[in-house]
Structure formats: C-alpha cells, structure tokens
UniProtKB/TrEMBL annotation:
Gene of this entry: Hectd2
Domain of life from the UniProt record: Eukaryota
Parts forming coiled coils: none
Entry-linked Pfam families: HECT
Protein name as annotated: Probable E3 ubiquitin-protein ligase HECTD2
InterPro entries: E3A/B/C-like, HECT_dom, Hect_E3_ubiquitin_ligase
Single GO biological process annotation from the record: protein polyubiquitination
SMART domains: HECTc
Amino acid sequence: GLERGAKNEFSTFSSFITTINQKKEDIVNRNSPTQLVIPNIRNVRDLPPICLDVRQKQRISIDTLPQELKAPIPPEPSLPIRTKTVKDFQDDVEKAKSSGDWKAVHDFYSTTFDSFLEINAAFKKDTSSPFNTIEDSGINAKFVNVVYDALLNTPQDVQKSVLKGVINGLLQEWKGPRTKDDLRAYCILLQNPQFSNTSTYVIYAHLLRQIAALTEADHHFLVHWSKKISQRRFKQLVDRLLQFISLRLFPAKPEEFPPMVKCTWWIPSAAKVLALFNAANTLISPSIISYTDFYNSTLDHIDLMEEYHNWQCYGNSHRFSFCQYPFIISIAAKKVIIQRDSEQQMISIARQSLVDKVSRRQKPDMNMLFLNVKVRRTHLVSDSLDELARKRGDLKKKLKVTFVGEAGLDMGGLTKEWFLLLIRQIFHPDYGMFTYHKDSHCHWFSSFKCDNYSEFRLVGALMGLAVYNSITLDIRFPLCCYKKLLSPPIVPCNHNTLVGICDVTLDDLIQIMPELAHGLNELLSYEGNVEEDFYSTFQVFQEEFGVIKSYNLKPNGDKIPVTNQNRKEYVQLYVDFLLNKSIYKQFAAFYYGFHSVCASYALLLLRPEEVEILVCGSPELDMSALQRSTRYEGYQKTDLTIRYFWDVVLGFSLDLQKKLLHFATGSDRVPVGGMADLNFKISKSEASTNWLPVAHTCFNQLCLPPYKNKKELKQKLIIGISNAEGFGLE
C-alpha cells in the first residue's frame, strides 16, 4: 500500500525539482564536499589522506579549523515552541491504537516534518541553546528513536504526510549557508526508516545530495555528531546507504527509478555520505561497527578494473569511481584488482623482455618469461637471497622455483614448498632476525644492529612475492607491522623520506609485548609520586649480544626524570622507540623489499587489516564450507571413512580445527576467497590403518588410511595434527 500510494502521490516530485537540478549540480561541483577524489595519482607525494576533513583523530572544534574551512555562521532563526514530550507522544500513539482515531498523531507528524525549523522545535533538547559544538548535537535522540520506531506502524496517510513534509523541507532549505539547526535536521532526516523502501528513493537521493554538497566545516560537525549514534542504529544507516547503492546499480524493477543517465549523481552522493559515517567510525576506538560492515558485496559483480583504471586516469577530475571510496570495496574485490593488476604487470614485463631479446637478434627462451629461482636445500636462505638480489629486475614475472638436484616440475607445489621452508628457517629463533613473543604469539623485528640488512629485504620481498603470486604465508606479524608497511603505501620519490614510520600507541604495543604495555599503563594510572617511587629517566636499556646498552628517548634524556606531569610523553616516546626508531633500518629494508614486488597504486585501496589477510589469510574458519569444496581421490564423499572424518572434524574445537588446517595446508588461516580457494583434497592411503594420516602441504592434500571406525579415526587424526611440526613428528 505504501509503495503504491507513495509512488502515485509523489510521482511528480522528480519533475517538480528538475528546475533546481542544474543549480544543485553546480553547488556539488563547486564545493567538492569530501575531496575524496585523489588529485594527481602520478605524483604520490601530493596525495592527501582520504577524507582529509574527517579522518583526524583528535577532537577539535570549529574554531581550530583552517581559515578557509570557516564559513560565515548565519544567525539561527527563532524556533516555534513545541512542548510535546516522549511520554506525551507515546500516550497519543496508545490512544490512537485503542480508539482508531489517529488525528493527534497525524497532526504531530505532519507538523514536525513540515520544515527544518519544526524538526528542530520538536527534537532539539533545548530550543533556547545554540548547541554549536562538535561535542553535542543537541538532538533528543530518545525522542527521535521513539517517533521513528512508531512511524512504520501508523496508517498510510500519516506516513505520506511525513514524506510530503520532507519534500517541503528539502525544497525550502536548499539555498544559502547552513545553520547548525539545518545540520541537525539533516542528521535527523537521515535516520528516517521510510528510506529503506525503494518507492522513497527519489526523495532519499535528494536528501543525500544536499548533505554531500555541504561544506567541509559542516561535514566536520556531522561526522562528530554521527559517532554518538547507537551501534544498532548506526549500522542500520550504513546498511540503508549500501542497499541504496546496490539497488541503483542492479534494480529489481528498473521502471521504479528514473533512467540512470538522469540520476548519475545518486551513487556519488550516497558514497560521499557513507564516507562521513566511515570517518565517524574510525574516530572511536574500538570502532562503532566493524570496517567490514561498510563492504558492499554487490560491487564484486561490476567491472572492477574499469573502476580502477578510471581512478588511475581521472583521479583529479570529477569522474566518479568506487576506488575513491575504498572502504566500500570488499577484500575479495580488492584481491581481484590486485591480482589483475599484478597479471598485467607480469605480462608487460615479460613482453618487454621478449622485445629486448628479439631486438638484439637473440633466440627467445621461455624461461625469460618467468622469475626462475634455483636453490639448494642445504643453502636455502643464502641461495634465495642471492637469486632475488641478482634477478631484481625479474621480480614482477611469474615465479617458478627449482630445487637443485631434484627433477621436479613447478606446477605450484614447489613454489609453495619454497615459501614454507624459507619462512620456517628465517623465523627460527636461532636465526636472530625476529623475536618470537610467546605472550602474544607473534614475531617482531630484532633490534640488534648489524652491517647488512639485506636479509630483511629478502623477507619483505618474500611477502611481496606471496601477495603477487596469490600464496598464503604462515607468518605471525602484529597489525602494527602492516600499518608500517603502508606508511606510505607508495614508495616516495625522495629517497631521503622516512619510510615505515607510523603513529603508534599502547594499543599497538599490547599486541606484541602485553606485559610491558600493561606496566606502562600502570605507570600512567599510578596515583602516587612517579618521580620518587619509580626513579626513572627518559632513557631505556636493551640487551644486545649479552651487552646492556642505553638509549635516550630525547636529548639529555638520562638527566630528565619521569614525573606525574611528563609520564604521558615518556610512554609515547618509549612506544615510538620500540616500534619505530629501534628497528628503523631493519624495517626500512623490509619495506623496500615488499614494495620492490608489490609497487602498485592498488595498495592505496587497502587497510592494514586487509594487507594482513592478503599475506596470511583470514582467521575465520568455516569447516562446512571446506567439506562442500573438498575433492576426493580413491574415496567417494559417501564412503564410510569420509563420513566418519567429517563427523569428527565438524565436532572438533576451533583449536583442533586450526591444527588440522595447519597440518594439511601449512597454515591455519583461510585465503581471501574462502575455503574453496584451498583446493583441499583427501586421498586414500594404502598404508596400514595403524599409521597416522599424512599431509602434502604443498598441494593441500591429506592422505587418510581407511580406518575401521570413527573412534580410531579420531584418535589417529588428533595424534597426527597435534604432534606434527614441519615434515615429521616432533
């Protein structure tokens, strides 16, 4: 009823506002509200951060904004006096439900939503107060929620009156500078649940357009006000915007909407408003909702490479691309972009090698099309280091690995084995490059000084090759490592520019050294006299090869005592020293190694969490999905042994399921594409049932003897997966 009625009632809305479309288009282009289009993609040093105006972490007021962002603040018009309270409204709704007379409720809705002034009169906490700070929107959120929760259960004429009022408000308020009351009205109107219905999308689109066209200063307020919205309602707003984009791209009933050529601004406007919510989400730690809740899986089905190329070629223009808003693109879609970009680079490099060979009248060789790595098992690290250093110009070719003295053809298995063995050796504690922290179960860079950091470059190149060749590595780095890898995401032109340096906090340290982070937290919260009780200075001590060395955190730090007044500075400098300065040379080599392979503008699309997933997979396991995608050799999926196997595995604890995955594939994490991308195979082993299961990790293959019963299978499987380390029993 609402859909049909609303369409008939408001079918003239689109034509009625056509006369103002061109002017509004000019406003959008002139204001460029969120400045998300990356200017001059070719000059990395000029790239601004995405959502420059709203990504700031500190809480600031309008007075701290640059002069150019300050718009003249128009005087707030006086508001009508409205005295209805939440209880009064709830009583009116209950009376209407029992009596069937909805006049009082109808009058309230039609009056309240008739203009921006009326919206403020009804929902502003105190109509006599300006509420012009970012800290408090002045909106009575409880009243707004109650009114909207009741709206969809009212008669159709009540709901239509609200939509009429919204149209009036949008037509009345579109000119001139915005007051804080206008911003409050926009904030309230965005939460209208009627906009989940496609019949209201024309109105919703114009609301989004007006919000997108606001100035940066106004967006600044909306962002900070939005972060005060409850988690459930915040997610509803994000979901509504994502649905709007999806249905505009792939409408179930195309005739419901105006032709795409007449409303090309719908999706850009929605994306810009989504960017405001994304910015609000990043301002709070922990965030209101997960960053993955902003993903729009519908975009997985569009031409992503066209979007990517538009972004690369027209980044400084007003041509829209979803890559301007990377938080909307799912990690699966980003992986497709990175893979195809890698393939194109591989083809380009290989073609150039071929052209060079032919131009010198030399006979082409197929091996020149690949990055051929030949290593001896007994000298794995040194040979790999030499090969990658010698063939630095070939790193962007398809990788093929040969073990000297072995007649193996690399169809993917040898490459994976090379990665597995090399990573295992490099990260061994005896090797000294990385320190394993048992409390956090992760590795971190050794701060020991040395003359040559080329092996750190090798590890970075290995990670880059893994991403470039779509191989998941069994590496345990904290999230901070991936933040540093994206600092900056593109190697700067100026080689004197520092790389791998990012803002770090105690939250980063706790992921690596939880005990130390806890101790520093205790220092910050200590209520006694810090200087007298701790007797510390701005100096830290580290053991290097059995020798204790001291480092000043600031000039003359050994002479500056830590006090109650400067302890925050001490903690920040200490964390920065541990995670940035003490390992700068090691990490810089690692950074350059990674980017020597993965240099791509596609990295600008990624969050640190997404780089981690690309490198070592996702920790989210779905064994039912693995069961559906598993292939069999010598078995049928209906065989008794296979049925026993899945009954046992699906009943395992998460810890045992991870051990099984690690046993069979070399990693307990899942590729970006999910379990299906593992190409997991169970083969029938002709060995005695007294034997344990065997795994070929290079091929993600489990060899399973035909055990007689479920109990025996479970016992042997648990023994195998719990005690196997590498290529034999521990």
